[in-house]
Amino acid sequence: MQKATRLIRAVKVMNKTAIDEAETERFLTEINILKIMDHPNIVKLYEVFQDKTYYYLVTELCTGGELFEKLSKDDIMDESESAHIMKQLLSAIVYCHSKNVVHRDLKPENLLLESADESARIKVIDFGTSQIFNPSKKMTVKIGTPYYIAPEVLSQSYTEKCDVWSCGIILYILLCGYPPFVGRNDYDIMERIKKGIIKMGGPAWKRASDLVKDLVKRMLVYDPRMRCSAQQALNHPWIKKHCSKAFDKEYTTKLLNNMRSFRVQHKLQEAVLTYIASQLITSKEKDKLQSTFIFLDLNGDGKLSTEELIAAFHQVFGPSFDAESEVANIMLQLDMDENGYIDYTEFVLATIDKKWLITKENLIMTFSVFDKDGNGTISPCEIKQLLGVGTSVTDEEWKELIKDIDENGDGVISIEEFVSMMKKMLD
């Protein structure tokens, strides 16, 4: 089975130089942050490996290259295309900030295009400079990239709104093709950033609408206390004007009905189905699922609340439909991490067509991936290796996880037991 992945190599862990230790720490920060990320516009972490020499990150595949490369080729973008990019970026940052994660190095080089298609979605990457922040405390580490770094970061007293400044710089470049602060070297650039004077001159800005100029100004307010938040930027009229949501009632009805009927009898079923869905879903189906998720996500924060699901059911099934009871049942089944929301992976898991996904061919291919040593059975250790990323499950708990599936009591799962377990989801 071909996996949709991108392999990233870290520094050598054997050499204990100051540079290697710093790079290793950065890499481990990225792993820990990505473990808690579940958003359609943030790169998905699948697996983590370590050998005697390297750490390895395995993420979803993005074949469209960096947004920076697209900008280098296209020079500038029209407002509609720019708005669609910014909506995705801001939604990802709203999601990060809701988890008290600040990125601190947002730039076109850290925005990947999912594919080479013109309408490809973006994925935020490189969380090595990120930090889980305390909203009541200022951050002080000076970190970031010239052109995009916020003035308060240079002063070493800042909040998560430094990300909003970086997003504002990206939007500025999308519209005119060059950054607002330039210089002969990094020192010159940062000296200009410290002054924070934004100019909008030249032909590109004469063509720009008043709405987008207003958004740029709000995002690049020098005083972060007066600067808009990521959520306020996402809710700006310019974003709403260019990013109206299409409503496919027939497809949305199908997904909501799949949600209503979703049941798992065993945690391993849930884990295996999540893995299969992440690896075998087609690009077309993935795009439709993402589009519907974004449509249902009314405030654009990358997760579905009870209120948003109730609104969706009323829109599809009518105002007299008992949406409150239906959504309460859905939350019990789907909100697996009990955070009060339906995260993106939970949404995909519940709405994807199980009859298409749980075929014997797909299950055999998946079994071969779980069966790492190729001995024809899956051990608790092998399950832990594949599904343990981002969990704190103990070895004993992994053993307990397979006990109900292990029909002959030999401590491992055979291909027959594996297929039988998953086929029960279709009963």
Question: How would you characterize the overall build of this protein?
Answer:
- The protein folds into four domains: 6-59, 2-Layer Sandwich (Phosphorylase Kinase, domain 1), CATH 3.30.200.20; 67-242, Transferase(Phosphotransferase), domain 1 (Orthogonal Bundle); 249-357, EF-hand (Recoverin, domain 1), CATH 1.10.238.10; 360-426, Recoverin, domain 1.
- The chain is 50% helix and 7% strand.
- The strands form four sheets. It has a three-stranded antiparallel β-sheet with strand order 1-3-2. Strands 4-7 form a two-stranded antiparallel sheet.
- With 427 residues, the chain is mainly α.
- The chain is globular, with a radius of gyration of 23 Å.
C-alpha geometry: globular
**What series of H and E elements makes up the topology?**
EHEEHHEEEEHHHHHHHHHHHHHHHEHHEH
The percent range for helix content is 40-55%
CATH architecture of the largest domain: Orthogonal Bundle
What characterizes the major β-sheet? 3 strands, antiparallel
CATH class of the largest domain: Mainly Alpha
Uncertain runs: 1-19
Portion in strands: 5-15%
- What is the arithmetic mean of pLDDT? 87
Topology, element by element:
Blueprint: E1 6-9, H1 18-35, E2 45-50, E3 55-59, H2 67-74, H3 79-98, E4 101-102, E5 111-113, E6 122-124, E7 131-132, H4 151-154, H5 162-176, H6 186-195, H7 203-207, H8 210-219, H9 230-234, H10 237-242, H11 249-261, H12 267-280, H13 283-296, H14 306-317, H15 323-334, H16 344-351, H17 354-357, H18 360-370, E8 377-378, H19 380-387, H20 395-403, E9 413-414, H21 415-423
Antiparallel strand pairs: 1-3, 2-3, 4-7, 5-6, 8-9
Helix pairs in contact: 3-5, 5-8, 11-14, 12-16, 14-15, 18-21, 19-20
